[in-house]
Specification:
The structure is a homodimer of 345-residue chains.
Chain A: E1 6-12, E2 25-31, E3 39-48, H1 52-56, E4 77-84, E5 94-97, E6 104-108, E7 113-114, H2 131-144, E8 151-154, H3 160-171, E9 175-180, H4 183-192, E10 196-199, H5 205-212, E11 217-221, H6 226-232, E12 236-244, H7 263-272, E13 276-279, H8 286-302, E14 310-314, H9 319-327, E15 334-338
Helix pairs in contact in A: 2-3, 2-8
């Protein structure tokens, strides 16, 4: 492949106040950068879009530094090596990188990981076999610690994290109750083998949840917050564990909701029911659990006990709209932008 | 000792609405009960008064069943065996029991534990060597897990739990910051060797706390809630642990505080800083840790690294007022009612 001469990329142009809009992003076209010694030039094939990116758009203390204004939006990517100045990688190699929202990126060779296209579709490296899958695995098994016969409830259950959480819960012998928005997602969760799947948009949602958990809830994997959490909290059993992975319903909040202040009631529930509420991001568990995850997940996919769905959007131009839609729950499956041709498919 | 003929006891007469009052209690005098086969008749020497008892006065789901209306208020006691119908105990033995707010109680012999008066003052069996001491030990070491050099902050630090938490934190090589109400309690914490002691009633409390934790807070042992928790939360470090042992400032709440609703902000802090917030009561850890606690605590008391203070009130008649005062922070040291003569002192 000849070296290309221009790179289209998407910058953070302004910080959102509340819900992000297309105006927060800016496209630009710049020359393709040249790799230095020890670096590689990468062509983006797939760009992962994930809810955590909403947090990076804020200028607030979070678990990671914000994206600077005028900088390329960050994100995990699956790329083809176009040019290599490192002996460990060659043009044509397919790698997992953190190239961001752009067509080309330069990265140190040691910061990318070579993928084996014969092992699994390469897009899964940012999905079920990548960060979202590992988030589900580590959060559920290390914090949630479901025991056989226990009840695990997961929010945003049709998403790449939630669908994996529910399926691993079942693999471990627990009951899995999934909560999602919309009939198509609920139907898919039933197809995946969730014991119960509930639509949080239903007017009878609270009653539906109560009926779905006759023995209460032992593990609640939190992705959303809001009215789903409000319905779950009263049903948590003594010693229940709550891995807090995301709070997508609150990401666009610009001010605190009206009162009364229920924070002391939340603390009282934690006290009187000996609850464990534990925030996390997957980085924390990489060194201790990533290898086991790769082996377990590959085995479960091979034997059919772990299934996944991808929502692939064509073209970098569509990344902002796809991202904004995801924050409203409009995607169905792991949201990935196909930025360039996939030579493996 | 001849068998006595009447027993004065204190019943729960009505449930408090908000702050309890003396009217919630009722004294009555009844015949002393007779022990059945396998039981002992106990004379109360010391009655422990503890904040958890406030929760038992409510008719609400908590970690233990409420005290029934018309039933004797429950509580841990140190007693002398007056009459025994069990071969394992003899009159004159001193035992730890759960005899409640009364002069005499009957209990199955297997539910009491014989104390060795030569080992420690027998009142410590409901204090530093008993439930409060074990609460501090298990909550700090199993949930807080302080590492050398980390900063541990404890609320209600002059109480029997808090003062033990801070001293064990220092034994384990952590910095201990104690928060208490009033200059006398602050002075005592400094005497105990806390690195910093703060008065939460001071108008400069928030600034004082900020200055006291230049490296943030790694463990916060929660006993109180309210404005102390509000000052602590923004200073918790990534991966901080919060054992939630009590929320005494909220026990008398009859309705939720006015808004805005800060519960989503609390969950966001848990998420973005990978916090662990974990409610507990000591029962959970008895089988796994009680023996180690007894050995460790006795050793620390013997070598002077663990000190304690008792606030002994004379006479069962004064139990209700002493209890109500404790809920307002008026005691100083482990609150114990001396109900009858102590033959060991």
């Amino acid at each position: 492949m000849s070296t290309p001469d221009h790179n289209t990329r998407i910058l953070l142009d302004s910080r959102p106040h509340g819900e992000p809009t297309p105006d927060n992003f800016r496209f630009e076209t710049v020359p393709v950068p040249a790799p230095a010694e020890g670096e590689v030039l990468l062509r983006t094939i797939y760009l992962s879009l994930d809810p955590y990116m909403r947090g990076r758009m804020n200028d607030a203390k979070s678990y990671a530094a914000p994206v600077e204004l005028g900088a390329v939006m960050e994100g995990g990517t699956v790329c083809e090596v176009v040019e290599s100045r490192d002996p460990g990688l060659a043009p044509g190699d397919i790698v997992l990188a953190h190239g961001g929202w752009q067509e080309y990126a330069v990265a140190p060779a040691r910061q990318v990981r070579r993928l084996d296209p014969a092992r699994a579709p390469i897009s899964t490296a940012v999905g079920v076999l990548g960060m979202p899958g590992f988030t589900a695995y580590a959060g559920l098994l290390e914090i949630g610690r479901p025991q056989p016969g226990e009840t695990v409830v997961v929010a945003a259950a049709a998403g790449p994290v939630g669908s994996t959480v529910g399926q691993i819960a079942r693999i471990k012998g627990a009951r899995a109750v999934g909560i999602a928005g919309g009939a198509d997602k609920v139907a898919w969760l039933e197809e995946l083998g969730f014991d119960v799947a509930l639509d949080h948009r239903s007017p009878t949602f609270r009653d539906d949840l109560e009926a779905a958990v006759p023995d209460g809830i032992d593990v609640y994997f939190e992705n959303v917050g809001g009215h789903v959490w409000d319905a779950v909290l009263p049903r948590l059993n003594t010693y229940a564990r709550v891995p807090v992975c995301g709070l997508v319903s609150h990401y666009n909040e610009t001010e605190l909701p009206a009162g009364p202040d229920r924070s002391s009631r939340l603390m009282t529930a934690i006290l009187t029911r000996s609850l464990t509420v534990r925030g996390f991001i997957q980085n924390e568990f990489v060194s201790s659990h990533y290898k086991a995850f790769q082996a377990d997940a590959a085995g479960w996919i091979a034997d059919g006990s772990l299934r996944y769905k991808e929502d692939i959007v064509a073209g970098l131009d569509n990344a902002p709209d796809a991202f904004l839609g995801m924050l409203k729950g409009q995607n169905f499956g792991k949201l990935v932008v196909q930025v360039g041709a996939d030579p493996t498919s």
